[in-house]
Amino acid sequence: MLKVDLSFGSNFAYQNAFVEMHDRSHALSLTLKDGKNTCTSDEFPVGVFHAFEGKRLLAQLKFQYDYDEKQNIVTVCGTDFESSDAMCLKTVPEGTSEYCNQRTSSGGFAADDLMHNPHWNYRTPLMPGLEDVLKKMARAANESLIAALKKVPGLTVKVRTHPPEIAPEDYNKLLTVYRDKKFHGLYEPGTEYGPTDDLFTIESVWGGTVQFNFQEKFANVIGSTNDPKIAGLTWIQLWAKQYGFYPTVCTSYQFNGFPCGNSLVGGHVVTGTVATKVPAGSNSVYIFPICVQHNNDDKVYMEALKYLNGIWLKNYMGT
User: Fold this and answer.
1) Which of 14, 178, 250, 281 gives a 20 to 30 Å CA spacing to 215?
2) Whether 132 and 91 share a structural domain
3) 198 to each of 65, 186, 201, 228, 304, how far by Cα in Å?
4) pLDDT digit string (tens) for 119-161?
5) Same domain, yes or no, for 129 and 239?
6) Same domain, 43 and 59
7) Which residues touch 319 (CB under 8 Å, ≥6 apart)?
8) Of 2-6, 26-30, 206-210, 312-316, which range is least confident?
9) Count of structural domains within the chain
């Protein structure tokens, strides 16, 4: 099991004749179990619902995660990732079943959350701005969760995100073609494709981001040369687009005296000390900036020394 403590929620005060939100921080302790699960926190007070017999307003955090205890890898949703798996702040007047859900990037499903609530509904004109307050609280909770996970010694943290923004005119360039369920190549406009050909977009390739630990060991993926280049970019350009700067040195610069060069690529890598072939469909392939010399040498392993953040690919070379 993985235990993590987070703190969030200060500076989110709100008050009118109907509801009052406390201006205080909230400290929670969560336990994550091995496998893909839903984490639900204990209830904690966030305010008072004056319009409903002065009942306390309670809240609960709920989100899905995937924790591989053996590999010590955890996967959670990013704060801007739109998914039913994302962090959800559930609020309910104490002693009632009138709940509302507020997610980090969307309000939830109003037809399910609100239609049967005779009292608690923060999306009416009677409570202007309260939805924004609760959304900020949910986002703060998720940011605190990710930050807390990244501080756990030895833990590799994968965060589900949307791909970097790509211009509409470039979108066709990211299409990949699979023939008979195997990677065939990049989509070429004007080419006639057959009934066994399938087209896939960036969403079928992009998983999100990953943070390695300092000095975490990793090695090359054998046979990744034909892996599709998203959006017509080289992998290192995609890495730079995600993190907002271009790398200037190999992630494993001169580790064990290795003669790193100045030319960099976005290397397909796996954790561990042995270069290996990875089966199609794997979710454990990552992109890190490495020098050409490291990329061409499968007999050595590397360590994360200069950059700890990378890209993780889902369904590697699969369909």
Assistant:
1) 281
2) yes
3) 30, 11, 10, 14, 36
4) 888 888 998 999 999 999 999 999 999 999 999 999 999 999 9
5) no
6) yes
7) 178, 181, 182, 198, 200, 204, 280
8) 312-316
9) 2
